[in-house]
Amino acid sequence: ELPVDSLALFSDTNKYTISTAATSRSSNMAFNTKSKYMSDLKVRQACALALNKQDFIDGLMSGYGELAIGFFPQSFSTFGDSKLTDTYSYNVEKAKELLKEAGWEDTNGDGYVDKDGENMVLTYKTYTSRQDLPRLAEAYQDDLKDIGIKMEIDYNESSWNTDDMDKKGADSWDINSWQMVTAPNGDPLYMIDSLGKDGYYRYGGAGEDKELQGMIDELRNETDSQKRADLAVKIQQYAVDNCYMQIAFHKEQSWAMSNTVTGLTEHPTDQHEITVDTDINK
Q1: 200 secondary structure, DSSP code
Q2: What is the band of 231 on the pLDDT scale with cuts at 50, 70, 90?
């Protein structure tokens, strides 16, 4: 993986070729339906509407990302984002309206919403080993401030610590963010299974939704490729609509290589292979 910040080092087209693709390495956010604040659907909806995905991609990602709705980029033509509706696209005013409907307003003029004399303070868990995640956390912190929500960031050094979440309990966090390859084998079940009772999103309560679990079980047992794709779209849309998750972006990853190399390209699955078409022309 070539960091975005390093691409300029290979800008000499007389020496280098850069291959870039929007991959299934996606930035996930789980919204905790069990927490004090996020158990309210309107609060989750407001938080989803506050996330300025495009601004983050254009600014801090230097444009090297694809705006996301579900787990898979548009290049996955049968079950990717082109098949989904962006229910909560960026809308600050709508987010503020939903917070007000939920009883959260800035009554003391400190810039943050409160209810019954208490400010809303969200806890956001992520890790630092992938450079995009701290950037996303800090950008989202500013986005939420725009709608009057204070967010504190709880960093792990290496990766998403599920053991830590189990030990501290459901109310120890509100939003969790991590990156992973969502379709390493080109099939939707690998990632959609994460929404179920044994998956990553179970920590936020998605796995307790019996309707959602029923659809996942149906996908697990379906063999027809088109029906599998249709189910994958249905499940993702359901999870997005119920604010179990937000996917911020699909990372555009790049390879830099000598321009003598041919037949080697970045692939949307984020799995890389040297094939019979790969060659070095001296």
Answers
A1: G
A2: very high
pLDDT band at 15 (very low <50, low <70, confident <90, very high): confident
Closest alpha carbon to 247 in 92, 97, 51: 51
φ, ψ dihedrals at 243, nearest 5°: 55, 40
pLDDT digits (tens, 9 = 90+) for 162-180: 656 666 666 789 999 998 8
d(CA 229, CA 111): 45
Q: CA-to-CA distance for 251 and 92, rounded, in angstroms?
A: 25
Predicted local confidence at residue 19, as pLDDT: 76
| Nearest C-alpha neighbor of 216 from the set 81, 56, 3, 71 | 71
User: What is the pairing mode between strands 65-67 and 261-262?
Assistant: unpaired
Token pair listed for 41: 């659907």
Ranges of H-type helices in 115-198: 132-146, 162-168, 189-192
pTM of the predicted protein model: 0.86
Beta bridge partners of 250: 26, 66
Pair 172, 205: CB distance under 8 Å? no
Please list the residues that pair with 181 across neighbouring strands: 25
Question: What is the C-alpha to C-alpha distance for residues 192 and 239, in angstroms, rounded to an integer?
Answer: 10
- Helices of type H across the chain: 41-50, 53-59, 92-101, 132-146, 162-168, 189-192, 210-221, 225-241
What is the structure's pLDDT at 201?
A: 83
Q: What angle do CA 16, 21, 25 make, to 5 degrees?
A: 125
237 touches 85 (CB < 8 A) = yes
